[in-house]
Design brief:
alpha/beta, Alpha/beta knot, seven-stranded parallel sheet
Length: about 180
């Protein structure tokens, strides 16, 4: 059996910053609601870059670039991904909903739809809200959201790191929207 050769970085067809800015984006917006860890914020930027996410909103206590601990995990994705700081998550949600964006809180809550059962509509833009590492998405934000999406978990913890949750949700939505 022939061994498969790993690709070199030069073979990955990476977009330049300019090419990324010009590329058609996946109609997904990420909202980080009071994220404490700078490394988690950087990881979210890197994942948003991977799936050509439209925009990342940093809300509440969520730190903003430039910061060395964000950059350490973002690996330059803060330069490619469009982002904005908005202090109040609730006002941001209202603004996005007025623009026909469907807001999805990623949380464990009554009435939540399991991620594997959620099917995004073609042509619709979605904003996904990820919450604080300890407290999750604020109840007021859950209440203001159009839907609540839960990542199915079968183990004893029922808790994923926010950067892992972001990767799972963005991959799932991206793959369903790309069909």
């Amino acid at each position: 059996m022939a061994a498969n050769r790993k690709l070199k970085n030069s073979e990955l067809d990476r977009k330049t910053v300019a090419e990324f800015k010009e590329a058609a984006k996946t109609p997904i917006i990420v909202i980080l609601d009071n994220i404490r860890s700078l490394n988690n914020i950087g990881s979210v930027f890197r994942t948003a870059d991977a799936f050509l996410i439209e925009k990342v909103y940093l809300c509440g206590i969520t730190a903003t670039p430039p910061h060395k601990d964000i950059q350490k995990t973002a690996l330059g994705a803060t330069e490619t991904v469009n982002w904005e700081y908005v202090e109040d998550t609730i006002s941001l949600i209202a603004k996005l909903q007025a623009e026909n964006v469907e807001v999805l809180a990623i949380e464990q809550a009554e009435g939540a739809i399991m991620l594997n059962n959620f099917n995004p509509e073609k042509g619709k833009t979605y904003a996904v809200v990820f919450g604080n590492e300890v407290k999750g998405v604020q109840q007021s934000v859950v209440t203001a959201s159009n839907k609540i999406i839960e990542i199915p978990q079968l183990g004893s913890k029922h808790s994923l790191n926010i950067s892992v949750s972001t990767g799972v949700v963005l991959w799932d939505l991206f793959s369903k929207m790309s069909l």
